[in-house]
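During the first year of the project, the team set up a workflow for recording each protein of interest as an amino acid sequence followed immediately by a discrete structure-token representation. This format lets reviewers and collaborators read both layers of information side by side without switching files. As required by the reporting guidelines, we include two representative entries from the current panel. The first entry is reproduced here exactly as it appears in our internal archive.
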Amino acid sequence: MSPAALPPNPNLEQLKKQAKSLLKGHRSADPASAQRLRQTLSHLSEQTDDEIFQAKFSLRNAQLVIAREYGFERWVDLKRHVESRRATGTMYIFT
């Protein structure tokens, strides 16, 4: 799976909300959430939806999935990238 592109002006709060939404999807047994986990976390690639939903899954795990979906190995790497873009003023405005 190719990484998703970050929005032009990534916002750490929005990324945190995405992780919380994924966590909520796992807790509510949303099949789309199971598919995302299966595609992103190699140790879950062969698991059924039921097995994925029975596994422990924390906010930290959800943040890892979000980071990997955007092409980063860890949440902290994604966070640093977003913070550095904001600190250096590297933002993009499209008109």
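The second entry, processed by the same pipeline in the following quarter, appears below.
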Amino acid sequence: MWSSRNVFVNVFLCAGLIVICTRCKQDCELIMMECELIPDSGPCEAAITKYYFDSVDEVCKAFVWGGCEGTVPFDSMEECQQCECR
């Protein structure tokens, strides 16, 4: 699981799709692992909107991240949708 992330936007070709990733040198397998991450707000109280893939409803959804620790699958709705989780 990953905690808070620095945003270094890179665009690369992944399985025939252009995918925007927030970490350098990330491959397709790691992107799909993010689809399975369960969001965790963490112990802080900053109330920052982040996103995750809901595998039951098969859609990207927002959740409130506290700003430290926890689990943040995606930084933006666009990032979640572009990874085409299923």
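For the second entry, the following points were noted during internal review. The longest strand covers residues 48-54. The chain has one domain: 10-82. Both points are flagged for discussion at the upcoming steering committee meeting.
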